[in-house]
Amino acid sequence: MGFTNKSKFAVHLGAKDIVEPNWSLIEKKNTRLIEIFEKLQSLLIVKDSLSISKTVRETTKIVKENDILPRLNNHGRAVESVYYNWLQGYLTELLFTPLISKTLHCPSIVRHGGDDITNIEFFRRTGDADLVDHTTKTMIDVQAGFTNGTIDIKKHKVLQAHENKDYESFVFFADLMNGTYANIPLKPLISEEFVPNPSWEGQLCYTVSNEHFQSFVKEY
After folding, report:
1. Residue 219 carries which DSSP code?
2. pTM
3. Measured distance CA(201)–CA(81) in Å, rounded
4. So where are the chain's domains?
5. In the chain, what is the straight-line distance between the N-terminal and C-terminal CA atoms, in Å?
6. How many CB atoms are closer than 10 A to CB 133?
């Protein structure tokens, strides 16, 4: 049938290469995201003037017009769910950048990761740090938790941090379930124990203790 690769042939036989997103469902999920993040924005101790609604609508428009959804690795999940999770993380990164800047004393943060919606030609999901401040030589990866599970760091992020001798590396966690955040330096974790995490395809991970977290919610 013209195939020389069995994996590609299997995809063809299963019609797994045919992806037609349910945009009506995505719009409903977008409405939920706007509701969640606008409320979250009103609670933050360090605020941003970000327009949540405008960001969500414009991002979805760009993704749709440039056929970006097939580039999101779904690991067998529905593409609408994959996009919802990606947009959750993207909004978290944008909304919490002022808090990251203040708590890590990084006044010149810029976006660094491959999933930059403003650069469609090179858009891709990578393991690169999401944010960087070249003036303070600091790299920050942003992770968001939306369940009451553990907060974990993949070992390859720690190894990657050690390879970069010139920059300090952190993971910023926003635990949306509990209203807390933490800045975790990566290089000191090299001596910690990493165990297989079934939630992340068995990758070796370090679980961050709750004692590192503090509230990102303003006091009333």
Report:
1. P
2. 0.83
3. 18
4. 20-215
5. 67
6. 21
Which tokens in the block code for residue 48? 């941003």
pLDDT in tens, the chain (220 residues): 888 888 888 888 888 777 788 999 999 999 999 999 999 999 998 877 899 999 999 999 988 888 887 777 666 678 899 899 989 999 999 999 999 999 999 999 998 765 556 555 555 555 578 899 999 999 999 999 888 778 899 999 999 999 988 999 999 999 999 999 999 999 999 999 999 988 878 899 999 998 999 999 987 5
Asked if 169 contacts 179 with a C-beta cutoff of 8 angstroms, the reply is: no
The Cα 180–Cα 177 span in angstroms is 8
C-alpha to C-alpha distance for 5 and 17, rounded to whole angstroms:
14
Nearest one of 144, 51, 53, 72 to 115, comparing CA atoms:
72
> What is the DSSP secondary structure assignment for residue 78, as one 8-state letter?
-
Q: Which of 78, 62, 183, 59 is nearest to 131 (CA)?
A: 183
Q: Determine contact, residues 175/213, Cβ cutoff 8 Å.
A: yes
Cβ atoms of 151 and 207 within 8 Å: the answer is yes
Give the pair of three-digit tokens for residue 8: 């590609």
- Residue 168 is inside which H or E element, if any? strand 168-175
